[in-house]
Specification:
- This protein is mainly alpha-helical.
- It has one domain.
- The protein is 35% helix and 8% strand.
- It has a two-stranded parallel ribbon with strand order 1-10. Strands 2-3 form a two-stranded antiparallel ribbon. A two-stranded antiparallel ribbon has the order 4-5.
- A hairpin with a 2-residue loop joins strand 4 (94-95) and strand 5 (98-99).
- The longest helix is centred in the C-terminal third of the chain and has 32 residues, at 309-340.
- It starts with a helix and ends in a 36-residue tail after the last helix.
C-alpha cells in the first residue's frame, strides 16, 4: 500500500508541467506619449502690416539688427517706414501721438526740431521689439493693434532718464480732449490728431519730465464746470504711481506698463528676458489653467551678435556722451588759447565770436489698459 502511494505520487508529479518563472519587470504601459501642440502657428506670430513677413525668418540688419536671424519684419520695408518720421539730419520728429518737430533742445519754438539721440535709441529699440520680435505675440490683448508688456522698473527709469530733457509740443487748449479719452473713454487713441500735441497754433514747448506724460495732470488750465469737476474726481481716484511708471505707459500708449514686481517683469532691451518670461510664466500659467490641453509657447532666441540690445543702447548713449565731452575739452583749450593772447590786445580790436500703428494678431488673452484701475 505504501509502495502504491509512492508510485502514484511519482507518476502524478511527472504528468504536471513545470510553471514558467514569475515576471519581474513592470507590465508595459498602454498609454501613449503625446507632444504638446503650439499655442500659435508660425504664421500667427507676426503682424499683417505692409512691412511684416508671413512668419519669422532672416532679414537685413539696418534698423533692427538683433532680430535679423528671426524677424517678423522685412528690414528694408520697416526701415523705410520708420525713417518717414525723421528729418534730413536723422532726427526723429514724432513718436506715438507726441510731436517733437516744433521744439529745439533748449525748448524754443522752431520748425525743424526733433528728438534727442538718447531718446531715439530707446524709441527705435521699442519699435523693433513691438513690431519685429517673433515673441511679442505672447503679449497680445484684445485692444486693437496693441500688445501690453509688463516692463521692469529699471527699464522705465532708464527710458525716462533718456527722454526727460526732450521737449514736446503742448497746446493747453486740447487738454480736455486728451483727458476725456484717457479717463472717460478708457484709452488714448494712437493715430488720432490730438490738438494737445500739435505743433501749431497756441502751443508751448514742454519738457517731458515736466509734462503730463510724466506727472499727475494739472487741471488748473481747464475752465471751471461739471466737466472739470468730473475729471478731477477721476484723477484723484486713480492709482498713484512713480513718474517712471506713468511715463512708460503714457508715452507708449500702454505698450509698456511698469510691473510692481521686479521678479515678474520684462526688460524689453533684452530679448532673453522676453523669452524667459514667456516660458517661465506665460506658458506655465496657461497650462495650469488648461491642464487637459497643455500647449507650448514657441519662442525664438535673439541673434548671437555678442551684444544685447541693452548693451547696444548703452554703447550708443556712451558714445554720444563721449563726443560731448571731447567737444567740451576742445572748446576749453581753444578758449584757453584765446585767453593767453589777451596781453596782445590793442584798443579797437574786435573780439571773436564764438533732432502702430502696431498690428499684431489677437489671441484669447485679454489685458485691457486700466484693468487694475486707471493710473495717473
Amino acid at each position: 500500500m505504501k509502495f502504491f502511494a509512492l508510485t502514484f505520487a511519482s507518476a502524478l508529479a511527472q504528468d504536471i508541467p513545470s510553471l514558467p518563472p514569475l515576471p519581474t519587470d513592470a507590465p508595459p504601459s498602454t498609454s501613449m506619449t503625446t507632444t504638446r501642440g503650439d499655442k500659435v502657428t508660425n504664421e500667427e506670430r507676426c503682424g499683417s502690416l505692409s512691412y511684416h513677413m508671413a512668419y519669422p525668418q532672416p532679414t537685413g540688419k539696418e534698423l533692427c539688427p538683433s532680430y535679423s536671424c528671426h524677424s517678423c519684419c522685412d528690414d528694408a520695408k520697416v526701415s523705410s517706414e520708420f525713417n518717414k518720421f525723421k528729418t534730413a539730419d536723422g532726427q526723429l520728429t514724432k513718436y506715438s501721438i507726441f510731436d517733437f518737430s516744433g521744439c529745439d533742445a533748449a525748448g524754443n519754438k522752431v520748425q525743424n526740431g526733433g528728438m534727442s539721440s538718447t531718446c531715439t535709441a530707446y524709441v527705435q529699440s521699442n519699435f523693433c521689439t513691438s513690431q519685429c520680435s517673433p515673441n511679442i505675440y505672447a503679449f497680445n490683448t484684445k485692444m486693437p493693434n496693441r500688445p501690453q508688456i509688463p516692463a521692469c522698473q529699471n527699464f522705465c527709469q532708464s527710458f525716462l532718464q533718456a527722454c526727460q530733457n526732450d521737449y514736446i509740443c503742448f497746446n493747453p487748449d486740447g487738454l480736455t480732449e486728451y483727458l476725456q479719452d484717457m479717463y472717460s473713454n478708457g484709452q488714448v487713441t494712437e493715430g488720432k490728431d490730438y490738438l494737445m500735441t500739435r505743433c501749431t497754433g497756441n502751443y508751448d514747448c514742454k519738457k517731458i519730465s515736466e509734462s503730463i506724460i510724466a506727472n499727475e495732470p494739472d487741471l488748473g488750465a481747464l475752465p471751471d464746470g461739471p466737466l472739470k469737476k468730473k475729471l478731477q474726481e477721476k484723477v484723484d481716484a486713480a492709482e498713484k504711481v512713480p513718474n517712471s511708471a506713468r511715463f512708460c505707459e503714457k508715452f507708449t500708449l500702454g505698450l509698456f506698463r511698469e510691473s510692481p514686481d521686479d521678479n515678474l517683469c520684462v526688460d524689453p532691451r533684452q530679448e532673453t528676458s522676453i523669452t524667459s518670461y514667456i516660458k517661465d510664466y506665460k506658458e506655465v500659467a496657461y497650462n495650469k489653467a488648461h491642464p487637459d490641453a497643455p500647449v507650448n509657447f514657441p519662442v525664438s532666441d535673439p541673434c548671437p551678435t555678442g551684444l544685447s540690445t541693452g548693451a547696444i543702447i548703452g554703447i550708443v548713449i556712451g558714445c554720444l556722451v563721449g563726443v560731448g565731452l571731447i567737444a567740451g575739452l576742445v572748446y576749453y583749450f581753444v578758449a584757453k588759447g584765446g585767453d593767453d593772447k589777451d596781453g596782445d590786445y590793442t584798443a579797437g580790436q574786435s573780439g571773436g565770436s564764438i533732432v502702430s500703428g502696431t498690428q499684431i494678431p489677437k489671441t484669447e488673452e485679454t489685458i485691457q489698459m486700466g484693468e487694475d484701475g486707471d493710473r495717473v
